[in-house]
């Protein structure tokens, strides 16, 4: 019985407790951006996880639309079915957070014995995941990703193609 209790205590102390888990998006999702990340606008958006390095999407958009580093990601004009739309994208990191109980226990024991801590207050481990949210508006400033928007399907098809092109493009 003592061995079982000791084993359970060891496992619970040596394991990390998940504090926050970043969402997994397999391809993309359409959602209110603010519900996904607080700093995003309160609008419907095309959201996907960005597996590439920092600023890759910026360089992709800049090169694809020949923006010459002017207003990249802000009201970029696109034409779908002979109609002009404007898209804006937002980037954010949502980290996974895990709390290391073993590190805290070891440092507390060392502190009691008058020794310096080993983990140096590194009890929370972070692993970041980057996400991109794209909003699309028409010339009348209406959100085109709302479910009742007339040309929504064509716009979503365009965004899927853009997303696939970005994922399969070389590094810029």
What is shown here, in short?
With 172 residues, the protein is an alpha+beta fold. Helices cover 32% and strands 31% of the residues.
Q: What does the model show?
A:
- The protein is an alpha+beta fold and 172 residues long.
- The protein has one domain.
- 32% of the residues lie in helices and 31% in strands.
- Strands 1, 2, 3, 4, 5 and 6 form a six-stranded antiparallel beta sheet that branches.
- It is elongated, with a radius of gyration of 23 Å.
- It starts with a helix and ends with a helix.
- The mean pLDDT is 79.
SSE layout and pairing:
Layout: H1 2-14, E1 16-20, E2 29-32, H2 33-36, E3 44-50, H3 56-64, E4 76-80, E5 83-100, H4 101-112, E6 124-137, H5 152-168
Antiparallel strand pairs: 1-5, 2-3, 3-6, 4-5, 5-6
**How many discrete domains?**
1
**Whole-number average pLDDT?**
79
**Helix/strand order:** HEEHEHEEHEH
Q: β content, as a range?
A: 25-35%
Shape: elongated
Instruction: Compute the separation of the termini in Å.
Output: 60 Å
Q: Please, how many helices?
A: 5
Strand segment tally: 6
SS-based structural class? alpha+beta
Biggest sheet, open or closed, and with what strands and sense? 6 strands, antiparallel
Q: What percentage of residues falls in helices of 4 or more residues?
A: 25-40%
Rounded to the nearest angstrom, the radius of gyration is: 23 Å
Spans of at least 5 consecutive residues whose pLDDT stays below 50 are none
């Amino acid at each position: 019985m003592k061995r079982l209790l000791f084993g359970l205590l060891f496992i619970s102390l040596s394991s990390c407790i998940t504090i926050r888990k970043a969402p997994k998006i397999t391809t993309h999702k359409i959602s209110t951006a603010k519900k996904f990340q607080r700093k995003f606008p309160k609008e419907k958006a095309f959201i996907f996880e960005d597996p590439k390095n920092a600023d890759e999407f910026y360089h992709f958009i800049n090169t694809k639309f020949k923006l010459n580093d002017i207003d990249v990601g802000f009201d970029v004009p696109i034409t779908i079915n002979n109609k002009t739309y404007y898209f804006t994208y937002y980037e954010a990191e949502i980290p996974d957070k895990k709390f290391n109980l073993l590190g805290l226990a070891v440092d507390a024991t060392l502190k009691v014995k008058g020794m310096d801590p080993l983990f140096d207050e590194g009890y929370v481990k972070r692993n970041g995941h980057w996400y991109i949210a794209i909003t699309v508006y028409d010339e009348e400033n209406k959100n085109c990703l709302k479910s009742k928007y007339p040309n929504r399907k064509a716009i979503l098809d365009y965004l899927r193609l853009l997303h696939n092109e970005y994922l399969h493009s070389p590094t810029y």
